[in-house]
Amino acid sequence: QVQLAESGGGLAQTGDSLRLSCAASARTFSTLAMGWFRQAPGKEREIVAAISRFRGITYNADSVKDRFTISRDNAKNTLYLQMNSLKPEDTAVYFCAARDTGEYTYYTRGRDYTYWGQGTQVTVSS
Fold first, then answer.
1. Which of 51, 65, 101, 119 is the most buried (most CB within 10 A)?
2. What angle do CA 41, 110, 80 make, to 5 degrees?
3. By CB neighbour count within 10 A (0-12 exposed, 13-18 middle, 19+ buried), where does 26 fall?
4. DSSP, res 31
5. Taking 90 as the threshold, does the pLDDT of residue 12 lie above it?
6. 4, 113 in Cβ contact below 8 A?
7. pLDDT digit string (tens) for 83-124?
8. How far from 24 is each of 5, 42, 74, 88, 123, CA to CA, in Å?
Protein backbone atom coordinates (compact mmCIF):
# COMPACT_ATOMS: atom_id res chain seq x y z
CA GLN A 1 0.00 0.00 0.00
CA VAL A 2 1.11 3.52 -0.81
CA GLN A 3 -0.38 6.54 0.89
CA LEU A 4 -0.18 9.93 -0.79
CA ALA A 5 -0.77 13.33 0.77
CA GLU A 6 -0.84 16.53 -1.25
CA SER A 7 -0.12 19.98 0.12
CA GLY A 8 0.64 23.45 -1.15
CA GLY A 9 -2.64 24.43 -2.73
CA GLY A 10 -4.41 27.69 -2.01
CA LEU A 11 -5.48 31.00 -3.46
CA ALA A 12 -3.41 32.75 -6.10
CA GLN A 13 -3.77 35.56 -8.57
CA THR A 14 -3.13 35.43 -12.28
CA GLY A 15 0.59 35.27 -12.90
CA ASP A 16 1.46 33.95 -9.43
CA SER A 17 3.36 30.77 -8.64
CA LEU A 18 2.55 27.88 -6.34
CA ARG A 19 4.37 24.65 -5.58
CA LEU A 20 2.42 21.53 -4.81
CA SER A 21 3.97 18.67 -2.88
CA CYS A 22 2.92 15.06 -2.62
CA ALA A 23 4.43 13.04 0.23
CA ALA A 24 4.44 9.29 -0.30
CA SER A 25 4.62 6.54 2.28
CA ALA A 26 6.32 4.05 0.01
CA ARG A 27 9.56 2.46 1.20
CA THR A 28 10.90 2.48 -2.34
CA PHE A 29 9.69 5.81 -3.66
CA SER A 30 12.03 5.73 -6.64
CA THR A 31 10.19 2.69 -7.99
CA LEU A 32 6.92 4.61 -8.29
CA ALA A 33 5.72 6.14 -11.53
CA MET A 34 3.79 9.25 -10.55
CA GLY A 35 1.51 11.88 -11.96
CA TRP A 36 -0.41 15.02 -11.22
CA PHE A 37 -4.04 15.26 -12.32
CA ARG A 38 -6.62 17.97 -11.85
CA GLN A 39 -10.37 18.23 -11.91
CA ALA A 40 -12.26 21.47 -12.28
CA PRO A 41 -15.95 21.76 -11.33
CA GLY A 42 -18.14 20.17 -13.97
CA LYS A 43 -15.17 18.84 -15.92
CA GLU A 44 -13.48 15.50 -16.21
CA ARG A 45 -10.21 14.74 -14.51
CA GLU A 46 -7.25 15.47 -16.73
CA ILE A 47 -3.55 14.76 -16.70
CA VAL A 48 -1.31 17.69 -15.86
CA ALA A 49 2.14 16.11 -15.69
CA ALA A 50 3.75 12.75 -15.13
CA ILE A 51 7.15 11.35 -14.26
CA SER A 52 8.59 7.89 -14.72
CA ARG A 53 10.09 5.64 -12.12
CA PHE A 54 13.88 5.64 -11.72
CA ARG A 55 15.03 7.85 -14.61
CA GLY A 56 12.47 10.59 -14.01
CA ILE A 57 11.38 11.01 -17.61
CA THR A 58 8.70 13.69 -17.62
CA TYR A 59 5.55 14.56 -19.51
CA ASN A 60 3.58 17.82 -19.46
CA ALA A 61 0.13 18.41 -20.87
CA ASP A 62 0.01 21.01 -23.63
CA SER A 63 -2.09 23.30 -21.45
CA VAL A 64 0.72 23.65 -18.89
CA LYS A 65 3.86 23.33 -20.98
CA ASP A 66 6.44 26.01 -20.24
CA ARG A 67 4.53 26.92 -17.06
CA PHE A 68 4.43 23.81 -14.86
CA THR A 69 7.31 21.52 -13.92
CA ILE A 70 7.03 18.11 -12.32
CA SER A 71 9.93 16.78 -10.29
CA ARG A 72 10.68 14.27 -7.59
CA ASP A 73 13.04 14.03 -4.66
CA ASN A 74 13.58 10.35 -4.00
CA ALA A 75 15.50 11.05 -0.80
CA LYS A 76 12.48 12.86 0.62
CA ASN A 77 9.81 10.58 -0.84
CA THR A 78 8.18 13.63 -2.33
CA LEU A 79 6.73 14.60 -5.69
CA TYR A 80 6.46 18.26 -6.68
CA LEU A 81 4.56 20.37 -9.16
CA GLN A 82 5.98 23.85 -9.63
CA MET A 83 3.27 26.00 -11.16
CA ASN A 84 4.25 29.35 -12.64
CA SER A 85 2.28 31.98 -14.55
CA LEU A 86 -0.97 30.68 -13.13
CA LYS A 87 -4.20 31.36 -15.00
CA PRO A 88 -7.83 31.26 -13.85
CA GLU A 89 -8.31 28.14 -15.98
CA ASP A 90 -5.80 26.35 -13.73
CA THR A 91 -8.39 26.45 -10.94
CA ALA A 92 -9.09 22.87 -9.93
CA VAL A 93 -8.52 20.21 -7.32
CA TYR A 94 -5.09 18.74 -7.93
CA PHE A 95 -4.39 15.09 -7.20
CA CYS A 96 -1.19 13.13 -7.17
CA ALA A 97 -1.22 9.51 -8.21
CA ALA A 98 1.23 6.63 -8.17
CA ARG A 99 1.73 3.12 -9.49
CA ASP A 100 4.37 0.65 -8.38
CA THR A 101 4.46 -1.67 -11.39
CA GLY A 102 5.08 -1.34 -15.10
CA GLU A 103 7.62 -0.06 -17.53
CA TYR A 104 10.25 2.64 -17.06
CA THR A 105 8.04 5.30 -18.56
CA TYR A 106 5.39 7.80 -17.53
CA TYR A 107 1.67 7.19 -17.58
CA THR A 108 -0.94 9.73 -18.61
CA ARG A 109 -4.23 7.94 -18.05
CA GLY A 110 -5.94 7.95 -14.71
CA ARG A 111 -6.77 4.28 -14.95
CA ASP A 112 -3.05 3.48 -15.13
CA TYR A 113 -2.59 4.56 -11.53
CA THR A 114 -3.31 2.52 -8.43
CA TYR A 115 -2.89 5.00 -5.60
CA TRP A 116 -4.39 8.47 -5.23
CA GLY A 117 -4.15 11.32 -2.79
CA GLN A 118 -7.10 13.26 -1.43
CA GLY A 119 -6.38 16.32 -3.52
CA THR A 120 -5.56 19.94 -2.84
CA GLN A 121 -7.56 22.92 -4.07
CA VAL A 122 -5.90 25.53 -6.27
CA THR A 123 -7.92 28.66 -6.99
CA VAL A 124 -6.60 31.34 -9.32
CA SER A 125 -8.38 34.66 -9.50
CA SER A 126 -8.17 37.10 -12.39
1. 51
2. 80
3. middle
4. G
5. yes
6. no
7. 999 999 999 999 999 998 878 899 999 999 999 999 999 999
8. 7, 29, 10, 29, 24
